[in-house]
Amino acid sequence: MPKLTIDFFHDVVCCWCFNISSRMRNLAAEFDLDVRHHTFVLQASRAEMATRWGTPKDARETILGHWAVCRQVSDRPELVDIDAMRAVQFDYPHGMTAALGCKSAERIGGQAAHWDMFDCLQRAHLTQARNIADPATVLQVARELGFEAAAFAEIFEDPATAQAVEADRQHARALQVHSIPTLVVRETGARLVNGPLEDLAAQLRTAFRLVA
């Protein structure tokens, strides 16, 4: 069977990306997929959050409404803690700081490290209600994952890491990616439709037939 490369565009603050990431891990093992990770920051600052969502209170309530819908179709709904995020004192976080964390991990350890960092930051956000817009939180998650603290912090603060996040944004623009999660089969250009594991598997089987 030929190998497929899947370009996975995602944002740590996206609950739908949480659902799809675990499914793609299962499918990557079943189909021997090469999953390539690309950051796609929906809002990159508190100012962009305000422009998109309004007041911090409005932002939290609207986004947590999306969480509730997402949790209903999640394979792991117990990991989406809406009450915990509603109770915290900080504003709902933007995704830029976490994106820098994912790219830092990638620069140190490649695609596997990016994916591990992404999943750990999503759990910090969705399950533990930690402020992933705070660099200290991202650096702490990196330490929890096993990265050497000083080395990770150096890469995290390196302007080249922010440039790599911007390069992902430009790559998304070139592919006309406008929403997340987006999964692009590189060999065919097809986009997988987000859905249950069995639906994604069926789409992958179709893609394999096309490239066989």
Secondary-structure topology with pairs:
Elements lengths: L4 E6 L4 H17 L2 E6 L6 H8 L2 H17 L9 H6 L8 H31 L8 H11 L3 H9 L1 H16 L7 E4 L5 E2 L4 H15 L1
Parallel strand pairs: 1-2
Antiparallel strand pairs: 1-3, 3-4
Helix pairs in contact: 1-9, 2-3, 5-6, 5-7, 5-8, 6-7
Computed Rg: 17 Å
Unreliable stretches? none
What percentage of amino acids are in beta strands? 5-15%
Report the CATH topology name: Glutaredoxin
Overall shape: it is globular
CATH C-level class is Alpha Beta
Summed up, the domain count is 1
Structural class by SSE content: alpha+beta
Number of helical elements: 9
Number of strands: 4
Q: Multimeric state of these chains?
A: single chain
Mean of residue pLDDT values: 96
Give the biggest sheet.
Answer: 4 strands, mixed
Distance between the termini: 7 Å
The SSE string, one letter per element, is: EHEHHHHHHHEEH
Annotated CATH architecture: 3-Layer(aba) Sandwich
Order of the strands making up the biggest sheet: 2-1-3-4
CATH superfamily: Glutaredoxin
Concise synopsis of the structure shown:
This protein is α+β, with helices and mostly antiparallel strands and 212 residues long.
